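Late entry, written up from scratch paper. The run itself happened at the end of the previous shift, but nothing got recorded in the book at the time, so transcribing now.
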Amino acid sequence: MTTTNRHPALALAALKLMLVLAALDQAILSTALPAITHDLPGSLPAAWTFSAYLLAATVVIALYGRLADVHGRKPMLLLSVALFLLGSLACAASQSMLQLVLARALQGAGGGGLMTLTMLTVAAMFPPQERGRYQAMLGAVYGVSTMFGPLAGGWLTEHLSWRWAFGLNVPLAVAAWAALAATLPRQSAGRRVPIDHLGAVLLAGALCSTLLLTQHERLRLPGWLSAYVLGAATALCAGAFVLRQRRADHPLVPLSLFAQPVYAAAACIGLVAGVALYAAVVFMPAYLQTALHLAPTQSAWHLLPLMAGVTLAAIASGRLLRAHTPARRLGTAACALVLAGFVLLALGMQWAPARPLVLSACLLPLGVGLGLLFPIITMVSQRASPPQWMGIGTAVPVMLRSLGGAVGVALLTSLFAHLLHTLTPGTQALQAVWGCAAAVAALGLLACRWLPGVPMAAAS
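Output as recorded:
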């Protein structure tokens, strides 16, 4: 039980602000990185600045969810915001690439918990019949912020300094932390259970080795960290983690959650959504800049249909769920739109490869589909999770979405590079990428079969 929140509007505004900062920070670096590599000394590859954040953020998502179950949402959220704040300050003050990479890891250790803990906090602040509205609002805020990241990074770098891309976070995060500390209610003390630290270490090892394996060539890792070594480490850690979760008295990720087809379907759709979102955000601007020679800010503006689709559809999804539209019906329509978006992109590469407005328009159904999915994933996973596992139940689909985006984009990038090396034209190589993404969307469409076929209120 929680005490009544006397300032829900202020708390909600602070939660939205932290989501904006976390989303911006993942995308803002893309346009600021050339200036950073010019200014900072060091021999570390620039890609490490992305990967350090991604590794740290992905690894801690499940741990934050489980810690929230044990210690409460509020202290974990304040810890997450504080680590993000300190990491942002360290990034702005970095004097070398090594310092920046370490600071990005600290920032990711905080940023990785923001999405999960924000959704958990909103679920506790509002009754079940109102959660869809606010979860949809959070999804819209996150989607818009992600799309505006490259624009914000380019503007700050051009008119101020790349350090402002990180330094701007500091006063805003301080304000959000203070507001959350003052307004969020305390949870009454519950039964404390041990944290599965060994399981956390094994999960971290599996995730780190997986992400490093998929980005092996891009990161220029030391020779002893070969793909074979990382592959073996991934298999060993993943297998040991599953065995540990089956035998532990208090597992980090209760495998019984996945015994429920509804929860397994939501987790699978989260993975699909991650692949779809990041494939569009990464490959479309890259094609517009390299093949059609558009400026970075111009290419970012061509993501507007995707951004608008995500924003408006996320809000609509929350309303439809509150209006008793079954999650299965809504999810099926959403995945069908995602599939149609990638098919249209493949056709656009065939018939209008030099017309950016046509390609940009093809992103609209993709954005609408993703926007419809985000609230469904959150609400279904939360409804399927027992109260004592609400934190980890919410965190796992978020972790899988992040993992799907990272691993999916890395694999699609490898496919794209391989096709280019075999003398396949760039447009055909990108068509193959969109085709593979469409196949992933088809898996999501299949998983929707196990979503609740009755309205959420009746399913709870």
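The mean pLDDT is 83.
(Scratch paper discarded after transcription.)
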